[in-house]
Request: fold
Amino acid sequence: MRREQKIALAKKLYILGNSIDSVAKQLEVSKRTIQNYKAEAKKQNDNWDKQRVNSMLNKTDQKIYKNFLEYMNDFLVEIKEDTKLSTEVRIEKISQLGDAFSKMKKIAYTEDPEIFKHGIIKETLKTLILGAKNSFKKECLEELISLIDSMQEELTNVSI
Reply:
């Protein structure tokens, strides 16, 4: 295997989460050789450690998004199934989902803000409307639609 190929493979293995020792053993080179590859790459603005962290964050972010959407769904089911809730309480609970959404913006700092913003807004609205359409009173849905209409410009200009 040529040196360039070893370096590329070492980088890939390291970014995927293998330790320097493990990469060295797999490529049958010394630990110091892998460290030298990393150092050379860093001098050329190819930071393996940063790429490794970003790779791990992306995996973590997917779990966080999935958990967040599951939380939203569970919360809506809870609102839907509690027939004793008044329209006002239902609206308050839906606004609590909005609060949870605003907390999710902290994650956006590791993502592309535009993709994050539009994806979460779309999923939030979709989940709210689908969860509400068959179970909420007409006035609650009208209030929700009115709220979304009044916030259209804000939703398109969300800054994260």
